[in-house]
Write a structure and sequence with these properties.
The chain has about 325 residues and is an alpha+beta fold. It has 13 helices and twelve strands. Strands 6-7-3-2-1-8-9-10-12-11 form a ten-stranded antiparallel sheet, sandwiched between helices. The chain has a two-stranded antiparallel ribbon with strand order 4-5.
Length: about 325
Amino acid sequence: MKWILGVTAIAVVVGIVAAISVPAQTVTPDEATLKLFPPETQGIGFVDVAGLRNAPLFQDLILKNLPQQFPRELNEFVNATGFDLQRDVERVTAGRIGQKEMLLLVQARYDKFKVEQFVKDKAENHIGTEVYLGRVIYTPGSNNADRHPDGGISFIDNFIVAGNLNAVKQAIDRMAAPAPSVVQNTELMNEIRTIEAGNQIWAVGKLEIGPIGGGRGPAEKLGQLAGQLKGGTYQMRIDQDVHAKASGTFGSAEMAKATSDMLRGLVAMAKLQVSSEEKLLHLLDGVSVENSAERLTLTFNARGDQLKELEQMKKAMPHFAR
């Protein structure tokens, strides 16, 4: 089960390393997919993997630099099923349900029979099965101590549904018959509709993380301030260039201003430290921090040629990435 969930998560990892340009319209949510999440969903994240694959800069910086050799288990999976994660994953939607549960919906082109047969062949005593409303859910075996006992994954039409077992069953319920969903969660849906159209990656939701420990000096103070976040949005897109925007809502305007001031100070300090590196300095010029009332907005803009030059620097100087 662990490797299966890892396989479905690869699409998310590949997508999250990218970023965005900012168009004028707002996103049109995929309500057919969102209806599979319950009303108590606290946050939603989305990755348009197909859109990233088609972005020129993503191809140059990410796809061309992926390792030629993947783990043996992944190669076996691809060879046996014909399911190529780089080619066949289309979209990934993830949700945090309540305080503890997660649900991951991967939309992809794959042969359900071949994928399920591969799972059965590799299962031995490590993977159990449960039939729920006619759908097979694969669950960790009882002798698999290193896996979460509450996990489940099901292959349904063009979806891979994974997460906490209860969340997976709720998604299957909603596939079978209409039911109240996150679409009725007005607060969360209003946040989704603030996301600008064309973003390949976005996330919205409430945050209750508390003070973040660790670090010293400015890092410790920033962690304490970040712990006061009540919610936020994040949006990214990559085409010829990179642009990203994150916004967070704090409990008070004073807290938002204090966090903004600290972030501006950290950016200024970083510029001083790299003042002799013109390329890095220009990259930091693309960072902007603004605050209004209880809201803080952080934006980042970088030209594609800047990022390509930095990539060449990393290859020429191995210590650069450390």
